[in-house]
Amino acid sequence: MAEFKPTFDWLKQRPLCLLAFGFGSGLAPVAPGTFGTMAALPIAFLLVLIGIDGWILAFLCVALFMWGIRICNHTEKALGIQDYGGIVWDEMVAMLLILAFAPFKWNWWLAAFILFRLFDSIKPWPIKWFDRHVHGGFGIMLDDIIAAIMTLIVLGIAAWII
Questions:
Q1: DSSP code per residue over 30-50
Q2: Which residues of the chain fall below pLDDT 50?
Q3: Pseudo-torsion of CA 59, 12, 72, 48, nearest 10°?
């Protein structure tokens, strides 16, 4: 049996799934996680411009994480597929968390993007362990938050060195 491929029309009929798919960015035919991560950039940019950054944005990310558990659980059930690659809410929230603490400069945001995608794609320990052993909406969200924390550690070391 062929794998179900959601469409934008399918997402429009399911608002929680539309969120899980990063407003459609998760429908990208290749590297949907990268496109989902990219979707977070203009959102973060606008939030920073209106004064929502740093710890305020981090606390917002906690709420988005909690809501993401429900969104991702719902979408997994609607698709009938565990941890479907097009579910990118986790990448969006993780990238927003990283950008809450990254300097508001293009080179830092680019470094943050590249590092996060590297950690999320390669899944070094402990990310891989959590990805394999924790499932459902919480599992989907958790491994990306761990990748975000690892990204923040590397960015912190770079800021300290520079």
A1: S-HHHHHHHHHHHHHHHHHHT
A2: 1-2
A3: -20
